[in-house]
Design brief:
Elements lengths: L16 H10 L8 H5 L4 E7 L4 E4 L1 H7 L11 H4 L2 H17 L3 E9 L5 E12 L5 E10 L10 H4 L2 H9 L7 H8 L3 H12 L3 H19 L4 H7 L5 H12 L3 H9 L3
Antiparallel strand pairs: 1-2, 1-5, 3-4, 4-5
């Protein structure tokens, strides 16, 4: 029986997309993954990583989003694929799963496409165990959450669809949790509870994410300066906008624009 310490430690140059993946799957406890299913879901990103957080497998939806071939991921980590600031966040999530042995479920986040622009996604990561119980890696899925394009939000999220639309339609306005509660005809405490239950975040954080999503699009697709974008989104101090943007995207607005405008 192969034990965790005996699992090979291949490099990006030596690992084969097929043989490396097949070997890794053989070390897993049966019934943990259904690869055919995830290959058939174009709106769901799916990946497997080994204990060193190197990609062992990504589905076509993942590789298409980043505009790289699936085999380009094999043996590499997030640091080789994403900007350093964003990669650190992804790797920290992996480490949290390794340290606790517990999954991260339904984490709402903005994921940046390699060609620029963002997508709202709900991400979950789970630990993977070998037949003898050793932890040998992680697996994750990320579902696109979008009201306007492609597949709609899942049924539980549609209960808040009017509020989601209201936030996006008024992203250039000064939005408050109190205003959202008035729009919904409910108390602030009820609004908070429903947002956390259905979207996994607070109304305040949701408003922030909507504004930063709009900022990402404008940074890449308009000639507006960072200061002009900040002002349009209701941030009248450049520094406060930069702090807000960095808290979500893990890089400054200027770094974001520079990095993604240089990419093909």
């Amino acid at each position: 029986m192969t034990r965790e310490s005996e699992v090979p430690n291949p490099t990006a140059a030596s690992i084969s997309p097929v043989s490396g993946f097949e070997h890794f799957v053989k070390t897993l406890r049966p019934g943990q993954i259904a690869l055919g299913l995830f290959e058939a879901l174009p709106d769901v990103l799916f990946w497997i990583k080994d204990r060193q957080s190197r990609f062992v497998f990504v589905n076509r939806a993942f590789s298409d989003l980043i505009r790289r071939k699936p085999e380009d991921f094999i043996g590499r980590t997030d640091t080789d694929i994403f900007p350093a600031e964003i990669a650190r966040t992804f790797l920290q999530d992996d480490e949290n799963v390794f340290e606790t042995g517990k999954p991260i479920l339904n984490k709402m986040e903005l994921v940046t496409r390699k060609a620029g622009g963002i997508e709202w996604r709900m991400t979950s990561k789970v630990p993977l165990f070998s037949n003898d119980g050793g932890m040998v890696g992680t697996s994750g899925i990320s579902r696109r959450l979008d009201q306007r394009e492609g597949h709609p939000l899942p049924a539980p999220y549609r209960a808040l669809s009017k509020l989601v639309n209201f936030v996006h339609d008024n992203v250039d306005q000064t939005l408050s949790v109190e205003e959202l509660a008035r729009q919904a005809g409910m108390s602030i405490s009820t609004l908070e509870r429903r947002f956390r239950s259905h979207l996994g975040t607070s109304p305040k954080r949701f408003i922030l994410h909507a504004k930063i999503a709009a900022a990402c699009e404008r940074l890449l697709h308009t000639p507006l300066s960072v200061g002009e974008i900040a002002d349009l989104l209701g941030y009248h101090e450049h520094a406060s906008f930069t702090r807000a943007f960095t808290s979500v995207m893990h890089m400054s607005p200027t770094a974001y624009r520079k990095y993604y405008q240089l990419k093909p």
